[in-house]
Each structure stands twice: as structure tokens, then as C-alpha cells.
Amino acid sequence: xxxxxxxxxxxxxxxxxxxxxxxxxxxxxxxxxxxxxxxxxxxxxxxxxxxxxxxxxxxxxxxxxxxxxxxxxxxxxxxxxxxxxxxxxxxxxxxxxxxxxxxxxxxxxxxxxxxxxxxxxxxxxxxxxxxxxxxxxxxxxxxxxxxxxxxxxxxx
Length: 156
Description:
The chain has helices at 2-9, 12-46, 71-76, 84-116, and strands at 57-60, 80-82, 127-129, 136-138. It is mainly alpha-helical. The N and C termini lie far apart (88 Å).
């Protein structure tokens, strides 16, 4: 059973999947930072200093009555909230990830297509047409076997 497990773990698909998950996690951290630290602050500023991660809808106040200055304070007080600002950040993250994955897959598909495309093969002609009787003859022929014309420009 241990040998069977080793065989399963060492299969190419399992290793590829593991690498994909690790790379996806690292990529997700980069995208989250891009959204939270680069994209959302200017958007929030343009919309009047709005911090999207602090946007929420209060359903029920917590042990300490509101208003709460931030989502963290509302959660600390035990308030029940709908955190639509975090949802907005997640949607923007998803759109960025989907777009970047689309362009990566598109580039890989183009590289694969170029690699699979057969190389241009130049084929040397082995036949030609007799200028007198228009039959197909060997390119090396000096006399047409059909009409017996000399192919050096002389006619017999």
C-alpha cells in the first residue's frame, strides 16, 4: 500500500496540480495586494475618501451601541453586518485574476500553436511542362518523350 501511495504521489498530474495550487496561492496574494493597496485607494479617494473594506450595512447593533467608525469596530462590538465593501474588493480581485489568467492562457495557446505548426517545407520541382505539346516531362529532360521536340530551343 505504501508503494502504491508513492506511485500515486509521484504521478505527473498530482505534481502539476500541487505546483499550480502553490503558484495560484502566491498569485492570489499578489492580486489581493494589487487590489487593496494599489487600485482601491485611488478609487476610494476619487469617491470621497471611501475605504471599500469598511463599507457595511448594519443589521443589528452589538453590545456597544453604534455608530461604528469602521467594520473592525462593529465586529469588535459584536454587531451583525453585511460587508458589501469586502465583496466589492473580492469582485475586483476576481476580475483582475480572470483577466490576467485569460492573457496568460492566450499567450501559452499561441506559443503551443506556433510550436505545432509544421515548418514550411520547400519542395523542389521534379517535373516541368513541354513548351510545345504541354505534356508533363522530367525537369532533366533535353528532349520531350511525347513530341520529340528539343527542349534547348531547337525543333527536330
